[in-house]
Design brief:
Layout (H helix, E strand, L loop, with lengths): L1 E5 L7 E4 L9 E10 L2 H6 L11 E2 L3 E9 L11 E4 L2 E2 L5 H4 L10 E2 L7 E5 L3 E3 L6 H4 L2 H14 L6 E5 L3 H12 L4 E6 L5 H7 L3 E4 L6 H9 L5 E4 L6 H8 L5 E4 L11 H7 L2 E4 L5 H12 L9 E6 L3 H7 L8 E5 L2
Parallel strand pairs: 11-12, 11-14, 12-13, 14-15, 15-16, 17-18
Antiparallel strand pairs: 1-2, 1-4, 3-5, 3-9, 3-18, 5-6, 6-10, 7-8
Helix pairs in contact: 4-5, 4-10
Length: 336
């Protein structure tokens, strides 16, 4: 099969022929239909942060069709369309039983989505209803990440919400906050590039820091006061401290940005305001299931994030181009 392979930091991905994986016990083989490019894919291959194993295949936002069954598979059938969680768990530990295989002590990542075929765990797949397109199916992973963050916030109906960061996770968070009852949802970003997408996703306000000398005042003007909840989806040093500054006293801050550098806050500021600070990494299996249900029911707003669809052969050049700011939000890869 064809696969886009990571060779070394600073080098583009290389399209190679790789052996087609064979599903083991409890696993299925999926013919990949669509894979989204995630910002973490770019970070892990940059050489500046966590080091990805050389000669590996990445791409964890994908969906596809089951084309082979490993021994013992009972719940999936050939031809089923699925969105897999990108981890294979043991199926028996507390994390797996809770539907969160990333917490499994024996967890192993899947042979991922920048290729034609991927081997995934049966229990870690969510079957896609026929109403969910391949494009929407590949959005389930980032949407589920946003959903888990919003669930952690325990939003009250009518709450005012600020999302800092307008990448896919920030936009997904804005979508769920609006859908699940927030009164006003403001998205803040460095520029206006994502303003139309944020509006399409359900944000009622958009704040570009480049347009205002006082972002905190702009937030309060947009929301009629300090926000009840701030979702930090920037992932850079200083972003959590900024979120604590923005949120109202007794408010909630959910950090989703996954900053992998040293950072600091002033605890006295959070203590004085009695801020509730939580961290959210990713999803449970039920988040995938709920997201698939919402998409199948006809809410197509998340498709606004998709700005381009490319072939596997086009991926290396496009991947490198995404390292610099540009017009794209979510780029889909069609390996067929």
């Amino acid at each position: 099969m064809k696969a886009a392979v990571f060779k070394a930091p600073g080098r583009p991905l290389v399209i190679e022929e790789r052996p087609r994986p064979e599903p083991e016990a409890g696993e299925v083989l999926v013919r990949v239909k669509r894979t989204g490019i995630c910002g973490s894919d770019l970070h892990m291959t940059s050489g500046r942060t966590q080091q990805l194993a050389l000669d590996s295949v990445i791409g964890h936002e994908f969906c596809g069709e089951v084309v082979a069954l490993g021994p013992g598979v009972k719940q999936l059938q050939l031809g089923d369309r699925v969105a897999p969680l990108p981890y294979i768990g043991c199926g028996h530990c507390p994390a797996c039983l809770a539907g969160r295989p990333i917490g499994c002590p024996d967890m192993k990542p899947v042979v991922a989505g920048f290729c034609e075929y991927s081997r995934v765990g049966e229990r870690d797949c969510v079957r896609l209803p026929p109403e969910v397109t391949d494009e929407a199916g590949a959005l389930i992973e980032p949407l589920a990440t946003g959903l888990q963050g919003v669930r952690k916030a325990r939003l009250e109906v009518g709450a005012s919400v600020l999302v800092t960061g307008a990448g896919a996770i920030g936009l997904a968070t804005a979508f769920w906050a609006a859908r699940l009852g927030a009164g006003n949802v403001a998205v803040m970003a460095g520029s206006n590039r994502r303003r139309p997408i944020a509006a399409a996703m359900g944000a009622s306000h958009f704040i570009a820091r480049s347009d205002t000398p006082d972002p905190a005042a702009a937030v309060q003007d947009a929301l009629g006061g300090a926000p009840d909840v701030v979702f930090e989806a920037v992932g850079l040093p200083g972003a959590i401290a900024q979120a604590i500054d923005y949120v109202k006293p007794h408010g909630t801050v959910i950090s989703m940005g996954f900053c992998d550098g040293a950072d600091s806050i002033f605890p006295v500021v959070a203590s004085w305001k009695e801020v509730e600070l939580k961290f959210s990494l990713c999803y449970y299996r039920q988040d995938f299931q709920y997201t698939a249900h919402v998409l199948a029911a006809g809410d197509q707003r998340p498709l606004a994030m998709i700005t381009d669809t490319i072939s596997l052969e086009q991926l290396p050049d496009k991947f490198e181009g995404l390292r610099e700011p540009g017009p794209d939000c979510k780029v889909m890869v069609d390996p067929s």
